[in-house]
Specification:
It is built from 7 helices and 7 strands. It is an alpha/beta fold. A 7-stranded mixed beta sheet has the order 1-4-3-2-5-6-7, with helices on both faces. It is globular, with a radius of gyration of 16 Å.
Length: 201
């Protein structure tokens, strides 16, 4: 069931982004992306957090659903496949799955649509909107790689959370921030100056 957090009458605007969080390790990446988007843009953030993602967030960060809801305009249950974001008529600028588990990657690659996250991703692809997947797994087996090839051929962007070591010494928090900014930049959001490569002096 949809839960509107900020405004019960959300504007019908093209500046909407669907943010899905799955059970792969890396809950901090999702929360940091939501924080950055909340501070840097006026977009509507429509958030889906799977049950596995909530379990991971509790283990990694000691937080629950409320941490994501506080940064969302609307929250959805992953089992609610009839939610608004499951329809192509719900206009968005796209969708990001961060972190993206191999299970979710496989579901998207094969068009299963058996959860809201997989269905919303399928809708994003069929409507030719930007879909960004942030897979958090290593090493990768051949099945993973073939699924990444399949989603890329379908139009998605696969963006593993690779740190930019050229930025110099990175604290764990700065590393998470840099990756979140990089993902946000794929939707046209400018990163902080410190997170950009400006060339050799």
């Amino acid at each position: 069931m949809q839960r509107n957090v900020r405004d019960a009458n959300l504007a019908r605007s093209p500046s909407r982004l669907v943010v899905a969080v799955t059970g792969a390790s890396g809950s901090a990446l999702a929360l940091e992306l939501l924080r950055w988007l909340r501070e840097a843009t006026d977009w509507e953030l429509h958030v889906v957090v799977s049950a596995a993602a909530l379990r991971t967030a509790r283990l990694e960060l000691g937080v629950g659903r409320e941490a994501f809801a506080a940064l969302a305009d609307a929250m959805y249950a992953n089992k609610d496949i009839g939610a608004s974001i499951a329809s192509g008529s719900f206009a968005t600028l796209g969708m990001v799955v961060i972190p993206c588990s191999m299970n979710t990657l496989a579901a998207i690659a094969h068009g299963l649509g058996d959860t809201l996250i997989a269905r919303a991703a399928d809708v994003t692809l069929k409507e030719r909107r930007r879909l960004v997947l942030v897979p958090r797994e290593t090493p990768l087996n051949l099945i993973h790689l073939r699924n990444m090839t399949a989603v890329t051929e379908a139009g998605a962007v696969v963006a593993p959370p690779v740190p930019a070591f050229y930025l110099g010494e990175l604290t764990p928090q700065r590393l998470v921030q840099q990756i979140a900014m990089r993902v946000a930049s794929l939707f046209g959001v400018a990163p902080a100056p410190w997170a950009q490569w400006t060339g050799e002096e």
